[in-house]
Write a structure and sequence with these properties.
Blueprint (H helix, E strand, L loop, with lengths): L4 H15 L5 H14 L14 H23 L2 H40 L8
Length: 125
């Protein structure tokens, strides 16, 4: 006699049905209620602080200044840009240091806020 997969499956189900005890519906409902109470709903992304109008305005000003600087360099005469490039070459290291410091300050401030929200604390010595 050849057995196909469906016959094997049916026989296995009948044999297991006789040996397994079935829990009461009360037990099932209590377990499900405990699971639902402990389960938390998690979202993929949460935006806690929307961008304020002042931050948007400052970002707009920075982009306008970059655009104005680019247009100034594009439409200026060749002799005028040489003086500007010498000035930028002198001031660039200072600009890079200040912007790097400010960005690290913002990064570590946001990192600290994120760690505090998620329950990470600095151990006390």
């Amino acid at each position: 006699m050849k057995w196909n997969e469906q016959d094997k499956d049916n026989l296995t189900r009948r044999l297991m049905q006789e040996t397994v005890e079935k829990p009461s519906s009360d037990l099932n409902s209590r377990i499900m209620s405990m699971i639902l109470k402990k389960a938390t709903i998690r979202k993929a992304f949460t935006f806690k602080k929307p961008v304020s109008a002042m931050q948007f305005f400052l970002l707009l000003i920075v982009y306008v200044l970059f655009a104005a600087g680019g247009l100034y360099i594009f439409f200026s005469k060749p002799g005028e840009t040489a003086e500007l490039m010498v000035f930028l070459k002198q001031i660039f290291p200072i600009f890079l240091t200040v912007t790097g410091g400010v960005s690290f300050f913002i990064l570590f401030g946001l990192l600290d806020e994120w760690l505090q929200q998620h329950g990470y604390k600095i151990p006390e010595e």
